[in-house]
């Protein structure tokens, strides 16, 4: 009863708890928060203290002194550090609800379709401990498809490929249900790791995660440039030979080569999904093509590479980074649709 009373003061919300970014959608208001999934923790006398969360904490990544740690609690699309994840969810819920003491919202959270029952339970418990009244889960590709405006409830097959930081989710959806799904733990993070490894190997230079991500966004590409080496970028790091800071120049051609492996694994996942799609739905996909969502959809030429590998039309969603949050939010607005979707998780 008490929870119900508190519920009157709260607004229901949808959370896209991503490996890279967390987005919060509040019923009737839309997306109200979009911050990196990073928490900075300070150790004081053996006790952990939250120093910063989100944008502020991301700036600290790789730049912290001994007693401070900037942590990404989500790895590969699931919670890697429960305690810190809970703090992060708590912080974001509080930030959204100005009157935190009255906030007992009903929360819907997206989970990767490949997450195990144990991982789903952990996410649910973290949100409950963070102060949610009732927690529902929705599968990420379904949310992404709704957010991208695909006709998920119609008797026609729609294919969505959500390329996130930790996972790539491929799903075929029809009549409000997921007919086929495939989740691989390959995404933007693996590309960043590949860039770090390449620069270390080829230039003896050590760079951090944040620099690798910047390089990927600025000059990364899913295929070799058509005209020579493509654009260049200056990057700074630590020389492994003599330990001093150094600056080098890398080209799009080099970065495309560095991330070729994770890109081909994403393409492979799409091809395997197509092979496993029932014929009637496959026929629908031939007509309508594939919808790309998630931040990875913004990688230069990823649509071209998937189009060439499958021979199908490929569309990039309008707001790839917000699709999952928008879709979860839309489901939250339509309670009957939500109940149907939640029942499947
Ligand atoms: N312009 C860009 N080019 C290439 N990659 C990008 C671009 N913009 C964002 N990304 C990458 O997209 C990823 C984040 O995407 P998104 O926010 O959809 O993932 P997430 O929801 O946090 O992760 P997951 O779905 O795995 O939990 C990061 O790896 C980021 O580097």
TrEMBL record:
HAMAP family in the record: MreB (MF_02207)
Main function: Forms membrane-associated dynamic filaments that are essential for cell shape determination. Acts by regulating cell wall synthesis and cell elongation, and thus cell shape. A feedback loop between cell geometry and MreB localization may maintain elongated cell shape by targeting cell wall growth to regions of negative cell wall curvature.
Family: Belongs to the FtsA/MreB family.
Organism from which the protein derives: Futiania mangrovi
Entry-linked InterPro entries: ATPase_NBD, MreB, MreB_MamK-like
PANTHER family: CELL SHAPE-DETERMINING PROTEIN MREB
Classification of source organism: Bacteria, Pseudomonadati, Pseudomonadota, Alphaproteobacteria, Futianiales
Name of the featured protein: Cell shape-determining protein MreB
Subcellular location(s) per record: Cytoplasm
Keywords assigned: ATP-binding, Cell shape, Cytoplasm, Nucleotide-binding
UniProt GO molecular function: ATP binding
GO biological process, one term: regulation of cell shape
């Amino acid at each position: 009863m008490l929870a119900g009373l508190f519920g009157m003061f709260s607004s229901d919300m949808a959370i896209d708890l991503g490996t890279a970014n967390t987005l919060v959608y509040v019923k009737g208001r839309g997306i109200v928060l979009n911050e990196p999934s990073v928490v900075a923790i300070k150790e004081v006398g053996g006790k952990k203290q939250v120093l910063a969360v989100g944008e502020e904490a991301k700036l600290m990544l790789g730049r912290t002194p001994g007693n401070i740690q900037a942590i990404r609690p989500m790895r590969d699309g699931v919670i890697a550090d429960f305690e810190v994840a809970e703090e992060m969810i708590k912080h974001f819920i509080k930030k959204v609800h100005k009157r935190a003491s009255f906030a007992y919202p009903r929360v819907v959270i997206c989970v990767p379709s490949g997450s195990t029952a144990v991982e789903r339970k952990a996410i649910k418990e973290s949100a409950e401990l963070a102060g949610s009244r009732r927690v529902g889960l929705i599968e990420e590709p379904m949310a992404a498809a709704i957010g991208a405006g695909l006709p998920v409830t119609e008797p026609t097959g729609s294919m969505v490929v959500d390329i996130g930081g930790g996972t790539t989710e491929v799903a075929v959806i029809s009549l409000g249900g997921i007919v086929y799904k495939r989740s691989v733990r390959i995404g933007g993070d693996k590309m960043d790791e590949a860039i770090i490894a390449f620069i270390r190997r080829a230039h003896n230079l050590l760079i951090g995660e944040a620099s690798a991500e910047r390089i990927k966004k600025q000059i990364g590409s899913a295929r070799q440039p058509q005209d020579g080496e493509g654009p260049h970028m200056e990057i700074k790091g630590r020389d492994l030979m003599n330990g001093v800071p150094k600056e080098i120049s890398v080209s799009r051609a080099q970065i495309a080569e560095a991330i070729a492996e994770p890109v081909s694994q994403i393409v492979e996942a799409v091809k395997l999904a197509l092979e496993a799609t029932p014929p009637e739905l496959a026929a629908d996909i031939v007509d309508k093509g594939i919808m790309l969502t998630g931040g990875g959809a913004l990688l230069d030429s990823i649509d071209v590479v998937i189009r060439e590998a499958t021979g199908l039309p490929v569309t990039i969603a309008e707001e790839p980074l917000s699709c999952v949050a928008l879709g979860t939010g839309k489901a939250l607005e339509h309670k009957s649709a939500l109940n149907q979707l939640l029942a499947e998780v």
